[in-house]
Amino acid sequence: MERHFVLSTGAMMPSVGLATWQLDPAVVGDAVYAAVKAGYRHIDCAAHYGNEKKVGLGLQKLFKEGVVKRQDLFITSKIWCDHHVQEDVPEALQQSLDDLQLDYLDLYLIHWPFKLKKGTGLSNPENYVTPDIPATWEAMEKLYDVGKARAIGVSNFSSKKLSDLLAIARVRPAVNQVECHPLWQQAKLHSFCQLTGVHLSAHAPLGSDGTAWGSCRVLEEPAIVAIAERFRKSPAQVALRWNIQMGHSVLPETETEERIRENLGVYDWCMADDLVANFYMIRQARLIEARSLSIHIALTGQSRSSGTGKFRGNTTQAPSVDRS
């Protein structure tokens, strides 16, 4: 049941993958090894995570032991914001391939729709420069043409930014990877992706509690807890199952073997429409902390005048008509 989603390229993308974001390089190789042994076939990586070399060691161990072959896995990586200049794009991909010890990626994404000066970080506003997504995308298309990236896409793109890209793309983005979970359901983006044939892949599908992006206590949401008790599943399994039933692949992040196995427990059961309807009533709120405000400003051009240190986005009830 929904073990894979078919991308616009025809590729089969596993519905559950292991996110390597925030996994310490000291443990990420073991987490990748444990995940693939448990049945995962999608590993989600990024240059900016700073752990791709260790992911590569975990992959090579799996290949050498005969647990899987390269063609059995779906590997994603992402280009960071300081490599958006056209001539830097193939360099960035090659670095990820070298670190991962691979010849190609199954999916290569633009990590964020903003641009930094090469070699600079997020903290200094002077490091931000005007993005040129069409130029970056043209370089991504060339990587697709030569087979180094078998599918290309984006991450953290709004409906507007995705629409702008679709209007000029020769090779359409196959995926938009964004934060999506029952407390941040991405109603408008979900509908737009379905309409345009862009697969929505959910990072942080169990919420963003304890991260720079905010505090969303998905696993404590009463509606989710009640469904978990009814099905004798964990709240995490319910939250993941909701995303999959919405047509989204999910990328939970954990280094714990027990949770790695638990997060695969989403295939042998299904929520009926009346239970799914309960999710539409969950209050929607996303909280962006001060240390990620620089990204918020870069993406929206907005800041806040009060000194509370937090920017709170719109808080609304999820509209049932969008069913997202």
Automatic annotation (TrEMBL):
Keyword hit for Oxidoreductase: yes
Site residues, Lowers pKa of active site Tyr: K78
Domain named NADP-dependent oxidoreductase: residues: 17-268
This protein's record includes keyword Transferase: no
Chain spans, region Disordered: 304-324
Gene3D superfamilies (alphabetical): NADP-dependent oxidoreductase domain
Catalytic residues (positions): Y49
InterPro entries: AKR, Aldo/ket_reductase_CS, NAD(P)_OxRdtase_dom_sf, NADP_OxRdtase_dom
Protein name: NADP-dependent oxidoreductase domain-containing protein
Species: Urochloa decumbens
